[in-house]
Structure to design on (117 residues):
């Protein structure tokens, strides 16, 4: 018998991917003044699709790729502080939202188990 549905596994996988993206964006911000540093992002969408189709317990990983959406400055750095700050804020909002949805799913499961007693 399977306790967790594909939706719960997908939400957990999506949360894991957003946490990875948060780390990468934080690295970009930490290197905002590092000459030659190129901003990166997560190859996110394919990994997110596989999170909802994946097997139980399978870790969700996505590749970090160069972000080509911003121009490279004269020192070779391509980190745009405003863009990265906005991405970090948006990503944090998504992490909180996914966490709340998962918490509600688990609360519903807990309630169902309690009713079976």
């Amino acid at each position: 018998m399977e306790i967790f549905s594909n939706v719960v596994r997908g939400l957990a996988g999506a949360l894991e991917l957003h946490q990875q993206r948060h780390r990468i964006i934080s690295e970009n911000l930490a290197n905002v003044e590092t000459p030659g540093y190129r901003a990166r992002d997560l190859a996110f969408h394919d990994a997110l699709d596989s999170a909802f189709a994946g097997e139980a317990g399978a870790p969700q990983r996505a590749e970090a790729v160069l972000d080509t959406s911003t121009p490279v400055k004269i020192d070779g750095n391509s980190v745009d502080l405003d863009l990265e700050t906005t991405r970090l804020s948006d990503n944090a909002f998504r992490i909180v939202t996914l966490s709340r949805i998962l918490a509600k799913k688990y609360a519903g499961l807990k309630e169902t188990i309690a009713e079976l007693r």
The beta strands are 40-42, 64-66.
